[in-house]
Amino acid sequence: MSVFKRNKVWYYRFCIRGIRYGQAVPEARTKWQAEQAETKAKEEIFEGRYCPEPSNISLKEFVEKEFIPWSKREKRSWRNDQSRVKPILAYFRNKKMREISRFNVEQFKRERRESQSAKGGRRSPASVDRELQLLSRIYSLAIEQELLQVNPCTGVKLCGVSNLVPRFLSEEDEAKLLPMLVGRRKHLLDILLVDTHTGMRRTELLSLHRSQVDLVRSTILLLHTKNGKQRTVPIHPNIHPILERLCDKAGPSGYLFENPKTGKPIKDIKTAWRKALELAGIPHIPFHCAGRHTFGTRAAEGGAHPKDIQEIMDHVNIATTMRYVHATDPGKLRAIEAAARGGKKIPATNLPQTKEATG
Q1: Alpha helices of the chain — where are they, by DSSP H?
Q2: Contact 290/202 with Cβ under 8 angstroms?
Q3: What is the pLDDT of residues 225-234, one digit of tens each?
Q4: What is the separation of C-alpha 301 from the centre of its chain, rounded to a whole number of angstroms?
């Protein structure tokens, strides 16, 4: 019989006429008891009475025993899940997954949206949306494991409409910021310039090794990416001298941005970045936005094809890339000028005249 045990809980799964059936049997203490539950389920199917009950597992128990181990196996960003799930578990506590309804999720969304962030400000819509998406993924995994049949997050709308347009570093702010990247913050200058010319993720950039930089072919080979696929990024002439200097100065470890105390790549630049912004008189903008988002925005404004931007920035979905093709004043002006150049010029005498002009 198709009976198995996972994390001290017995399950049965079988297939009849191409239809799969399965359920957890938390009451079973032995394999024989689980097999008896499976036999009873098969009898009910043949008699038309089969209706599996959802699992009694709590959200906290499922997250700790199933979801987090799955996330560690399947996702490079599992630490984000481990951090973002904390407010979810704090809100729902020991509530069973089967007891959480769409109304409960809406309440969670509203309370998180109205709560304060760790810095004392209003929590951003994007932060709440990430938590909602995580909760939905947790339920999707439970449904895949046939513990539940309904995802209470279905139909709950995300709230981050205003965050769809990515923030980026304007040319004016860049001119004020670069002079501040000196002294103890000198390393930020190279990091920022390379990022605004390549669009790499921060972890990809900070862990860059000398062996990944091909100065002859002017390419950078990224090995450990978010999507798990290697990709190549061209080196623009503007940053070729920078990368050449960094490769020459790299220590025994070979990392371009090395922490001299540990001999490993730099992990955190938040403190130096915040200080540089403060000295430049620029409102806080995350480095991710100042580097990667700025690259995407400038590439789109410069007329690059979205597919090319998608490949360089390693976006799985083209919709993510299209967020960078947003309207800015210079972009609108170029669009108007392009339309004027592309249209046929109509002589003024042939233009339709208004009553005021003719009267």
Answers
A1: 31-46, 59-62, 68-74, 78-92, 102-114, 125-144, 171-177, 186-198, 202-206, 240-249, 270-280, 287-288, 294-301, 306-313, 318-322, 329-342, 355-358
A2: no
A3: 877 789 999 9
A4: 23
Look up tokens 């700025």; give the residue: 294
Same domain, 199 and 321: yes
Residue pair 134/84 in contact by the 8 Å Cβ criterion: yes
CATH assignment of the domain containing 121: 1.10.150.130
Enclosing domain of residue 240? 171-332
Distance of CA 14 to the CA centre of its chain: 37
Which pair of tokens denotes residue 265? 């790549």
Tell me the pLDDT tens digit for each residue of 47-72. 666 556 667 899 999 999 999 999 99
- What's residue 77's pLDDT? 81
248 pLDDT more than 90? yes
For the whole prediction, is pTM greater than 0.70?
no
Structural domains counted in the chain = 3
Give phi and psi for 287, each to the nearest 5: -60, -35
What is the Cα–Cα distance from 146 to 134, expressed in whole angstroms? 19
Of 210, 195, 306, 197, residue with least CA distance to 252: 210
DSSP tag of 52: P
d(CA 257, CA 278): 23
Closest C-alpha among 320, 271, 330 to residue 296: 320
The two structure tokens encoding residue 114: 């109205």
Rounded Cα gap, residues 153 and 134, in angstroms: 10
Are 320 and 178 in the same domain?
Answer: yes
Secondary structure of 83-136 in HEC code, one letter for each residue: HHHHHHHHHHCCCEHHHCCHHHHHHHHHHHHHCECCCCCECCHHHHHHHHHHHH
Same domain, 76 and 206: no
